Amino acid sequence: MLLCPFGRGLVLHFLYYQNKIRDFSQVGKGEKVSTDEIDRARGLIEKTTSAEFDPERYEDEYGKRAQAMIEEKVKGHEIKAAAKAPERGAKVVDIMAALKQSLAETESKRPPRPAATPRKRKSGS
User: Fold this and answer.
1) End-to-end CA distance of the chain, in Å?
2) 2: β partners
3) pLDDT for 30-69, tens place per residue?
4) Where are the domains of the chain?
5) Given pLDDT bands bounded at 50, 70 and 90, which one contains residue 75?
6) Which listed residue, 13, 44, 69, 75, has the most CB atoms within 10 A of its CB?
7) Share above pLDDT 90 across residues of the chain, in percent, rounded to a whole number
8) pTM of this prediction?
9) Is residue 125 over pLDDT 60?
């Protein structure tokens, strides 16, 4: 997952494929994020992270289909759009309230974590 500041909040991007995952040094920094938002983001990541996740097991099917359509278009073939799916009624949800509730429910089910030990600082030479 990648959390990015957006406007006055955060946007969570799921990274499903190996080619979407970058080193932290390549991720932009610059937006200020509140301590409360950082704590919620950490909780969300801990709740949804799985040690068994291996992005190399998955393929970007959407990307492959898009690339195939582009190649067909380059060859001069006509590309027809699929029939539009029927619209569903949109339910407006307060995402921050839902996140707080989800994290609270998870915390009540999770065993307490051991206290973190402070890191030793390297002295400058």
Assistant:
1) 38
2) 13
3) 667 788 888 888 888 787 776 777 778 888 888 888 888 8
4) 1-24+32-52
5) very high
6) 44
7) 3
8) 0.31
9) no
d(CA 12, CA 5): 9
Neighbours of 10 (CB within 10 A): 20
Count, residues in the chain: 125
CA–CA–CA angle 36, 37, 42 (5° rounding)? 100
In this structure, the strands spanning 2-6 and 9-13 are: antiparallel
Residues facing 26 on adjacent strands: none
Supply 57's token pair: 């097991």
- The angle subtended at Cα 112 by Cα 32 and Cα 117, nearest 5°, is 65
Confidence (pLDDT) at 17:
67
Please indicate whether residue 69 or residue 122 has the higher confidence score (pLDDT): 69
Torsion of CA 100, 115, 35, 37, to 10 degrees: -30
